[in-house]
Every structure is written in C-alpha cells, then in structure tokens.
C-alpha cells in the first residue's frame, strides 16, 4: 500500500501514560489508540499483525482437528447460575440487563456456552472426541487496567475446548494442544517456554503456561539449562534434599535466651551459625484453621504449594494477634517443639536437619539442638518451599536457571468439573451414562502481539519477526519528487507485492530522515532505499531491521534477494 | 474433514420456534443454536460460511483502498454524549456500568469512535481521503428478536467509514463502495439489486440499500425491466403525470348530497365515475401541525415522502377527533376547497385533474367539478404518493416491476453530521479549517448468510452458492465397512482437498439414505457417491445440488470434472 493512502499516525514523544515498552511503542508506532481505560482501538498496522497471529493459530488448531465456531460475547445469567459461576465471579465480570430487565454478562470465558452446546448435541461415545474453538473478544473488568494490551478490559482470545470419553482421551487432546501451542509461538518467531504451572484450588489437574521470555515479564520461571524442564516459580520443584549433617549425633535439647532476635538471619548471626540451620516457623491462616509451616532459615515458603498441600481455599500469613492467640507467644519466637492444637507442615529439608535452632514458644527464647521426629512430629511433610535458580533440576540434576516471562497461553485439564455440574453426559459402548472429560486451552491474541514487542525491540522501535510483521518491507524513495527515483521505487514496490512480499511504498513528501525514523519505529523487517544510486548505478540499499546489516543490491536482483532474506528474519 | 471428527448435529424436525426458512434450515442443518433470545452460537458449518463472506468483503474493501482496523464493542458513554446520541438512542442500546459505576454501551454502530480516532490523527488535507473499516459484533436490544439471524440482538457487521475533503471526494468514495458492494454480493453468488432508499429525516443525502431478492423479503422494491433503475417503494418515483382530461372544459362547482359515502371508492361508485377522478384528502398530524395531503382516489399517500416534503420529525394519520377539531367536519367529507388554517400538500397528479370530486367539508356532502388552482391553491405541490408496479420507470419509461428483498447492505453519504458535532476538522491547501466530509457503509455479514438461504433453498434443504458454501463437496462411501469402497472414497477425498476442493468424507456408519438427506439439508454444492460401481467399474456418481443433474464419471477424471463444474455452480 502507498503511505499517502494510509493512516500512519506515528508519534515522536513517549506517551506519559505508558509504563511498559510494548504500550509505549504500540502508541508511538501508530498501532493502537485508547478509547477508554483498558479498551483500545486497533489501527490498521495492529490489525494486520493480529490477523497474522490469528491465521497461524487457526492453521495449528485445524491441523490438530480443531473445528472453528463462534460463541456469543453477551451471555444470559441463567447459564452462569447453572454452572455456579454467576455468584463466584466478582466485580471482574461485566454485568448488564436487557430491556426486559433480564441479567446478562460479557463473557470472560466460554465454558458454559460450549458445554451446553455439546450437552445438547453429543449423546454417544461415537461423537467423541470433539475439539471446538473460537477466536473472539473477552471481557474482564480489571480494577486497574494497565500496561496497554497486557492487562486490558477488552481483549482477543482464542479458546479451544476438548471433549473426550476418558482421561486417556484427554491426555491425547492435551498433547495435541501442547504441540499446537508450541507450533503457534514458534511460527510467530518468539522465544518462549511451556512451563508447568499451578492448577489452582481444583487440584490434581495438569496445566502448562506458555511464556514468552522477556525481561519485563511479570512471571518468574525456572528452567533447566540441559533438559526441557521448565516451571513457574510457584510450581517449580528440585531434587529431594540430602542430609546436611551426615554422621553428626543429635545433642540434647537446650533453651537459650535470644532477646530481640526474631528473624532466621538475626538468630543465625546471634549463634554464629548458617541460616539454613535455623527452622523458620511461619503461621498461616486458612479458611479452616491456623497452621505452622516449617522451612529452612535460608528458604521461603511457597504459599501456592502450601495452599494445595492443605487443600484450603484461601491462605494468608497470620497477623501478630492471631499468632499470639494461637501460640501464646509473640511472633518471632514460635517453634514446632511443644506447639499445641496447630497442625504442622514441614518441608522435607527441615526433616534432614540435625541439631537445628527453632523458636521456643516463649518470649525472647529459642531452642538449640532441635531434631525432627525426636522433638516434634509434623502432621504433613511436603515440598512447600520456593525453589531458586542454581538448585538442581528435578528431572536431570543440572542447574536451574531463572528467567522472566509473559504468559501468552495456557492449556488445562478441566476433567469433569463443568460436564458434571452442567450435565454434559454421553453413553459409552455399554450404554452407560458418563460425564464428558474436558480440557480448555487459551491463547491471548492481543497479548501475544504485545509480548512480541516486549521481546523484540530496541531504542528506535519495534523489531517484528517476519511472520507477524504488519508488512515485510518498506520501499523508500529518497526524493519522491525525482521522477526517475519515484518510477524505480514504484516498479520495485509493485514487483515485491506481486512476489508475495507485503510492501509499503513510502511516497510521502517528507524528508528521508523522517521516513527512516518511522520505518525503524514501525519495525518493518526490511527497509529498501531507492536513491540516486538506483538511478545512476541501478543499485538499492536493503537494510535488515534487527541486525542493521545493510547490503547494496542491484535492482534486477532485489526481489529475489528479499525473498531469500525474509525467511531468515 | 472426516464426518466422524465433526460436529454435524442435523435435525429431522422443523423446530417450532423458527418462523422463516433460513432460521429453520440453519437450525435443522446444524449451523446455529440459540444461546438466548436473538443471540446465537455459530457452529462450525456456519463459521466457515461467515469466514468466506468476510474474506470476500475484505478483498473488495481492500481493492478500493480500504484499511482494516478494529474498534471496541464496549464504548464509554462520554463519546456518545459528545455526539448527542446517548439520549437519542432508546432501549435498543444495551447500556451497562463498570465496577467504578461509569456508563458504557455495547456499540450498535461506530461513528463516534472512528470520528474521534480520525479527529486525533488527521490534521491536513494531505492525509485525506481515508477509507477505514472493521468487521465485528454489533448489538441492538430488539424488543422482539425474531426470524433467526434476520433480526438478532448480537450480529456481525462490516462497517466502512470514508473521510474526504469535500462533496466531490465523498462522491468518489461513495462510488467506490457502490462498486465494492456490487462485487461482494455478486461474488457471494446472490441475486440482488442496489436500490435507491430514503435517507430519513437528515434529508438531502444519498443512500442505496443492497437487497437480496427473495419472496420472504420484508422490503418491497420497484425496479425497471429495461434500465438499472431500482428503488424501495418508499423512495420510488415515476414519470410526471400527464393530464387525464385533455381538452375538457372546467364546469361550475356544485354541491352534492352523498350520505354515508366516505371512501374514494364509495364516492366514485355513487357518482358512476372512475376512482381516479376523486381527490382523496388525508389529514396527518406532524410534530408541528395538522396538514392535508391530496392524492388521486386510486393512489395511496407515501408517508415517507410526505414527511420529507414537510421536513417533519414525526408523522401520523390524524384520528377522528383531530379531523373533527381541525376541519369541523367528520372524516370522509374533508376536501381542499375552503379548508382553513391547514396547509395543503397536493400530489402533481391531483393538479392535472379536471372536474374532480372532493369532500365539501360538510357532513354527507361532496363537491363536483373541483379544479385545482381555480377552487383551491395547495401550499405545496410535491410527489407524495406510492408508485406501483406497472407504472413507467422515471429514467426510461419502461414498465416498473415489483420484487421483495432482504436488505444486506447500505451505503450512505453522512456529510458533516458527525465531523461537525465532534469537531473532526482538517486544514485545506489554504490553511483554512473545514469539517471532514464522511460516508458510512455497512454490510450485515450474518444477515447475508441468512439471506443467501432465503434465496437458495428447496424442500430438502439449503443450496449454497459455491463461493460461500461451507464445503464444496461431500464424498459418500455407500458402505463404509466395505474396505475397497472406503479406500477409493478416502483417496478421492484426499485428492479433492489437495486440488483445493474443500471436501468432507462422510465416513459415519449410517445408512446411505441418512447421509444423502444430510447432504441435501447441509447444501454441499456437489455430492459424490462412491459405491459398488466405483469398485467394479471405476465410476463415481457426481450430483449437483441445485439442478439435481447426476453424472457418472470415471474415478481418474473425477477431480478434474469437479474443478470444472464448481465455478459454474
């Protein structure tokens, strides 16, 4: 397309409201404009990128046997009442009434509708499996929408739902989607990792998040430098702890005065020992009880793991008053020895300590030579700690590395959660009625566009991977008023488009510097400059946005050269 | 795709809730399911049709220089207050509040957002024209959603907005869209007509509706059998009336007693004359006044034309009490002679009558030998009547024909209505600020799918035009358990898809009759049956859905034959 016929509203200044790079560059490069808080208009460049991402998503879903459909955005409250989610969803659910005063919501997700469709149409095992998906707007009334497309209130998602006869079928569907997602993000030209993630309070189910690696990512990931293990920090595990004190004999338990020493670091320093020799005792309050969680003094409690271990719905650190009431001791001096009426959950590393230090459940006092099983017996021993970079990979023992990531997709084994409550059953080979086994699989389309920018940019602007770039190349005549230059640029532009290279002809009557700046900001993978050299020597300059590599190529070979370079960008 | 991996929920019964053919067949053929009143889920077959229509729309918009973008569905009240439409729109506008109690609506149309985007980015004549469009869900809270996709509350539309410097530019954009729309509906394989339509109270602006011709259509159209003139009945005109009584001398006005004779027909019969010799005097009440509208006794008043002639906002037939109060006469005896304090609007045909009959403004009394200009002077003489089939075309004089149509698109010259109120201005060559001149152009995507069915079906099901069919062909092995048949069917199915013929392999273990019925209901343009003849003689049966023509073709030539037939369907 010709730049003079396009809306190219680039900005020179960094907009004040934009906190993250993708938001800044999407605004500056003329891709989006804010219509309301967390609600954006996608201008033509953005729409081209979104269409490319959606096309890749469609092809990979279809390749796995996915059938595209389209479900409503506005949904009646009845079906959300039936699933039980109408009252569970808080203020994040946009609710409205129609002219007859009936309740509706704007869908944040489509489990209800799809499960009811399948309930109505699938009766027999012969009709299973089914993989059904759609791509549409989703709504979430965030308290504080921010980070541009990262946390909007209106956003585009692909969601696929799988319907199988049993867990084995679900496993096959899940693997198909794992493969499809891997293909999608690879084809989008992104550096990413599928990571094991926590499946929340439902428990038991498997889930992976697909993370685009970027320093600005809100999620921390641990991944193995050798094998394919990767997990987000809430889920990451490591090899079982070895005993730290082999051959050392347990000594007698003693009380010691430790006035004012509360934290594991303070206590360790006081006794002149390493912090890992201290048993950190943290009190938590769940929806049902107060519990004590024990980890080594150099570790942190992983609250997600603890929550899942307890099977609780909510979990929060106990406040000073709760600690005092539950233990009769001020916080800082609580320990597992002699603790009454409180369940104790210990990390396995705590069990491997010999002659450790712990709170004495008495003000300004600690116990030394504490030994698990002799001095106290935990109610549960489970991995409840945060794993850190440098620890061994649970699969292969190599060192775990840390990275930050942006979640762009998630695949999830739902099981029979929705089919049971909504009555989506089928008759098996023996005529027995069973609930359909479901999975759900989401990709944030608008978020993927933003994540691609977080990962691919420099100080001059966006660096699009060629597969999702709005255009592949921009052809810039240095002097559009020079008829000869313009004629050559025009011809090259048309030849490129005929050859399938999506190109823009920047025929605006602007200085070359302005066009170069715009080209860098918008992030065309290739910039082709047609100047005097083209007229005099038949040579154009082809510059690669990512590497900055610039080649002088003869006009007659330019199209071929571009087609050769493009797949490598 | 293989039928055993697809969701094909066909129904044998006509669903009770479906009043129109397209609604019935979309349900029966497994294309849609109702999620709520006027809100539908589009199953995979429907989504394929919608994607094809949208692709055709995109290509034709892009061909004219249209730039695709995407605007929000949920929009803040502020911008609707700014345009003045927040309070104008009645209960058809879905309104909601966010968690901070701010007002939003679900967009029925996007003039506000696009005009504000352009206001923000376009400053100079150099940036004009712009053609910007998007395809997205629209919302209208109909009092009584009905007719399936014909009048839903959530539906898909393409809307393009043009931005020009002046009326000449708008005329060019308008013509481009007229051409694009003609191409879209031609490529969709539909019989349609662009018809002149009324532009409503705004007045002066040009608008065309694109009507898919179908007996079930809600709109009546008059079109010329010779030239390209076509208009909906509210807008249709004809050649100026010739005098009916050439050379006849006006006679003296006389009063006649006509007890109980009120209608033009009764009066004509009473006097033994043709109804066209009676002046029909209809009293209407507008938002400002009571007026008398005069048409010949054999004609009907066109209330839209009358409304526009008067420049009124509302218009309704005066009730008995209003007639009595305004004229002092009971309805049925009102006439133009001696009528006081009431404006008279006469159709030109009335002016051409000599010695006509009209009400005397006295109970049970009419006047004979009434002659316009001698006995009364209308305040306005304008075309205010309904034109009927059989009258001459206003362009060429040939006979007008009548048809019924379904509106699937409308193009409209907005002018500066929105740019003025929202302040979307540009600086012209002389640095003078001017409002941008706009046009808007809509296509109902989901409605086009339904209209295609209204026009293309028979008692067995849908007959898709090949260009928008969900698949081009279905391959049916007569006995899927017969390995030889199945192998041949499978090979043919794969060869067809490789050749670009989108095909379904109906490998379900159902009787052939069931599959044939489904094939007819779903409406594949071609049905290819692989039976014993294929195994024994290498011959398959290719049947064309529309004509029923069935050919026996050798397996080796089948793919070629199908590719040859397809473009003709």
Automatic annotation (TrEMBL), chains A, B:
Q: Name one GO biological process term.
A: prolyl-tRNA aminoacylation
List residues of the Aminoacyl-transfer RNA synthetases class-II family profile domain: 48-465
Grouped into one coarse class, the protein's main location is cytoplasm
Query: InterPro entries given for it?
Result: aa-tRNA-synt_IIb, aa-tRNA-synth_II, aa-tRNA-synth_II/BPL/LPL, Anticodon-bd, Anticodon-bd_dom_sf, Pro-tRNA-ligase_IIa, Pro-tRNA-synth_IIa_bac-type, Pro-tRNA-Synthase_IIa_type1
Supply the alphabetized keyword list: Aminoacyl-tRNA synthetase, ATP-binding, Cytoplasm, Ligase, Nucleotide-binding, Protein biosynthesis
Q: Does the keyword Cytoplasm apply?
A: yes
Q: Where in the cell?
A: Cytoplasm
**SUPFAM superfamilies referenced in this protein's UniProt entry, alphabetically:** Class II aaRS ABD-related (SSF52954), Class II aaRS and biotin synthetases (SSF55681), YbaK/ProRS associated domain (SSF55826)
Q: Does the keyword GTP-binding apply?
A: no
Task of the protein: Catalyzes the attachment of proline to tRNA(Pro) in a two-step reaction: proline is first activated by ATP to form Pro-AMP and then transferred to the acceptor end of tRNA(Pro). As ProRS can inadvertently accommodate and process non-cognate amino acids such as alanine and cysteine, to avoid such errors it has two additional distinct editing activities against alanine. One activity is designated as 'pretransfer' editing and involves the tRNA(Pro)-independent hydrolysis of activated Ala-AMP.
Q: Which family does it belong to?
A: Belongs to the class-II aminoacyl-tRNA synthetase family. ProS type 1 subfamily.
Q: What is known of its domains?
A: Consists of three domains: the N-terminal catalytic domain, the editing domain and the C-terminal anticodon-binding domain.
Q: What is this protein called?
A: Proline--tRNA ligase
Organism from which the protein derives = Desulforamulus profundi
């Amino acid at each position: 397309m010709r730049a003079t016929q396009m809306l190219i509203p680039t900005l020179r200044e960094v907009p004040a409201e934009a906190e993250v790079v993708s938001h800044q560059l999407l605004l500056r490069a003329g891709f989006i404009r804010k219509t309301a808080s967390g609600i954006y208009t996608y201008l033509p460049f953005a729409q081209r990128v979104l269409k490319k991402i959606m096309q890749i998503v469609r092809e990979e879903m279809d390749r796995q046997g996915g059938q595209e459909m389209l479900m409503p955005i506005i949904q009646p409250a009845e079906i959300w009442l039936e699933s039980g989610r109408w009252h569970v969803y808080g203020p994040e659910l946009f609710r409205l009434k129609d002219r007859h005063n009936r309740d509706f919501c704007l869908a944040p997700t489509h489990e209800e509708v799809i499960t009811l469709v399948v309930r109505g149409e699938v009766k027999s095992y012969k009709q299973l499996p089914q993989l059904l998906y759609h791509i549409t707007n989703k709504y979430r009334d965030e308290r504080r929408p921010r980070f541009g497309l990262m946390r909007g209130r209106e956003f585009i998602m692909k969601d696929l739902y799988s319907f199988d006869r049993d867990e084995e079928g679900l496993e096959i569907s899940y693997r198909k989607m794992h493969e499809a997602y891997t293909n999608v993000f690879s084809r989008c030209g992104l550096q990413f990792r599928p990571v094991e993630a926590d499946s929340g309070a439902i428990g038991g189910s498997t889930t992976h998040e697909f993370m685009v690696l970027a320093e600005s990512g809100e999620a921390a990931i641990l991944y193995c430098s050798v094998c394919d293990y990767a997990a987000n920090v809430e889920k990451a595990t490591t090899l079982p702890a070895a005993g730290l004190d082999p051959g050392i004999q347990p000594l007698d338990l003693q009380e010691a005065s430790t006035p004012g020493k509360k934290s594991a670091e303070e206590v360790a320093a006081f006794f002149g020992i390493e912090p890992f020799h201290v048993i950190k005792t943290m009190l938590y309050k769940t929806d049902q009880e107060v519990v004590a969680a024990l980890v080594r003094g150099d570790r942190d409690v992983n609250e997600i793991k603890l929550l899942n271990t307890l099977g609780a719905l909510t979990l929060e650190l106990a406040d000073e008053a709760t600690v005092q009431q539950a233990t009769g001791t001020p916080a800082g001096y609580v320990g597992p020895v002699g603790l009454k009426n409180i369940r104790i959950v210990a990390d396995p590393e705590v069990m491997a300590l010999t002659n450790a230090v712990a709170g004495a459940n008495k003000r300004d006092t600690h116990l030394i030579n504490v030994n698990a099983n002799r001095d106290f017996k935990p109610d549960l021993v489970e991995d409840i700690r945060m794993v850190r970079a440098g620890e061994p990979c649970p699969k292969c023992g190599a060192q775990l590395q840390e990275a930050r990531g942006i979640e762009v997709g998630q695949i999830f084994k739902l099981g029979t959660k929705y089919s049971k409550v909504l009555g989506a059953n089928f008759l098996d080979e023996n005529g027995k009625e069973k609930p359909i086994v479901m999975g759900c699989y989401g990709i944030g389309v608008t978020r993927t566009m933003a994540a691609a920018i977080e990962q691919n940019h420099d100080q001059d602007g966006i660096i699009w991977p060629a597969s999702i770039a709005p255009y592949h190349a921009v052809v810039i005549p240095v002097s559009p008023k020079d008829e000869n230059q313009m004629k050559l640029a025009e011809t090259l532009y048309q030849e490129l488009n005929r050859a399938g290279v999506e190109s823009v002809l920047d025929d605006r009557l602007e200085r070359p510097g302005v066009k170069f700046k715009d080209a860098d900001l918008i992030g065309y993978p290739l910039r082709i400059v047609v100047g005097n050299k083209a007229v005099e020597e038949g040579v154009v300059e082809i510059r690669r946005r990512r590497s900055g590599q610039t080649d002088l190529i003869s006009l007659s070979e330019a199209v071929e050269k571009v087609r050769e370079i493009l797949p490598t960008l």
